[in-house]
Amino acid sequence: MTNRESITAGQMSLLFFTFMTGSSIINIPAPLIAFAKNDAWLSLIISGTIGGLLLSCVLYLNKQYPGLTFVEYSRKAVGTWITYLLSIPFVSFLFHMCAGIVIDVDLFMTSSLMDETPMYIFSFIVLLAAAITAQAGIEAMARMFIIIITVMLCFVVIIFLLALPDYHPDQLLPIMPQGIKPVLHGAYFSYGFPYAEVIVFVMLLSFVRKTNSKELNKSMYMALVMNGVILIISVVCTIMMFGPMAGERKYSLYQFARIIQAVDIIERIESIIAMALIAGSYMKATITLYALTLAMSQLLRLRDNRILMFPIALIIVLLTLLLSEGMTKWEETVATIHPLYVSISYVFPVLLLTLVTWIKSKGKQSS
Amino acid sequence: MLEKIFVLFVMFVLILAYDVPRLKLKQKRERLAYGGLMLIALYFSVDYVSNIDMPKLHMVVTLLLSDTAEQIFGYLKAGVS
Predict the structure, then answer these.
(1) Which of A144, A148, A349, A364 fits a 20 to 30 Å CA distance from A280?
(2) Domain span including residue A199
(3) How do A266-267 and A261-262 pair as beta strands?
(4) pLDDT mean over A157-162
(5) In the 3-class helix/strand/coil scheme, how is chain A assigned residue by residue?
(6) Of A16, A126, A23, which is closest to residue A334 (Cα–Cα)?
(7) B23 to chain A nearest CA, in Å?
(8) Which residues of A touch B15 (CB under 8 A)?
(9) Domain total for chain A?
(10) Cβ contacts (< 8 Å) between B47 and chain A: which residues?
């Protein structure tokens, strides 16, 4: 790396919150309700708890190896060759994930707003913007995203408030009419997207200023809880509006905004949700692209981690065009393969490193 | 096909126009890594333009995981109407 940047614990937790909430607030409700029906909020509690456990592993590793990223401390803990072995699925999933975020935007735009426009236009624009932002560095990202996420959340909250007269709280009942399986199915899905993706921050936590490291744990857990609360509110509001049938509506939050009509002048405000989806996905893609470029540069032992930014962004543009075989096929991939793929690529390496580090630290203490 | 080639040409030209002057100042290792990634991009470009469905890592992942993933999916879905 050419110059080491640093951000505060608050800025890191904001990036984390942005990453977790950005695209999921729009993309999660419909498929989650399709799997878990009106118990979708219970699924989020289960998967959020798993996300919390994974976050504690990430924070433990960061505490044990201050100032180092996943690739660097993996080299220390398990050696160079096992690091390469663990990093292949890790990096491949970062590529897959970043492409997935952009595919979500592409499919949304071509199915809801601009169906005549070719997908490469959206992929190229989103990734070009993401690459330019990531090139500016993590400090610039942290400063910029606070504005975008605040505006985005304000819009979403306003939409939830405007829909108050249309809510039917009785739609939330009964709880678990079909047993626990639909809840577990929803939890399995939401564990894959977004909670297991917590692991991406193994590449980024080392950027927190050493003076702020004590506050980091608290603010990261706070960000995760905030994310859980917002996703639960989003799912509960969608169920109260459409009932369990919300799962059959594509982008239910977008459909939700379409229905709102207040005092004859506030109507057709669904474009605000569209903007929120694009902004959220852009921010998440930027953070993922930054982590991916950093991981690649450290694996290849390069001094300048930003020189690979644009070729990686180009590969991701091409991946989005090659992987998106239509909405149904993509949804099936995300619902079935994604949670297993993320477990092997992200969760397994981090759990292994946590175990090795814990055993090593116990050995040191006893000796 | 011509449209696809034109779009890819524009993307490659833009990226190379921005990066080549910077690359001249970099070490050999960085230039090699950059070249390697551009070769991967070229491979995917050929796949995209020609529609041959050339081998990709994603295919290997799908091949390895799809059976297990479908079993889990089927178990969780069983008995739910």
Answers:
(1) A349
(2) 9-344
(3) antiparallel
(4) 86
(5) CCCCCCECHHHHHHHHHHHHHCCHHHHCHHHHHHHHHHHHHHHHHHHHHHHHHHHHHHHHHHHHCCCCCHHHHHHHHHCHHHHHHHHHHHHHHHHHHHHHHHHHHHHHHHHHHCCCCCHHHHHHHHHHHHHHHHHHCHHHHHHHHHHHHHHHHHHHHHHHHHCHHHCCHHHHCCCCCCCCHHHHHHHHHHHHCCHHHHHHHHHCHHHECHHHHHHHHHHHHHHHHHHHHHHHHHHHHHHHHHHHHHHHCCCHHHHHHHHCEECCCEECCHHHHHHHHHHHHHHHHHHHHHHHHHHHHHHCCCCCCCCCHHHHHHHHHHHHHHHCCCHHHHHHHHHHHHHHHHHHHHHHHHHHHHHHHHHHHHHHHHC
(6) A23
(7) 8
(8) 310-311, 314
(9) 1
(10) 318, 322
Q: Tell whether A36 is covered by a domain.
A: yes
Q: Which of B7, B18, B33 sits opposite A300 (nearest CB)?
A: B33
Structure-token pair, residue A162: 């405007």
Residue A38 lies in a domain: yes
In a domain, A4, yes or no: no
Q: What percentage of residues in chain A have a pLDDT greater than 70? A: 98
The residue assigned the tokens 């990096």 is A91
ipTM for the assembly: 0.93
A226 exposure class (CB count in 10 Å sphere: 0-12, 13-18, 19+): middle
How much is the pLDDT for B80? 56
Question: Does A223 reside within a domain?
Answer: yes
CATH number for the domain that contains residue A75: 1.20.1740.10
| Positions in chain B short of pLDDT 50 | none
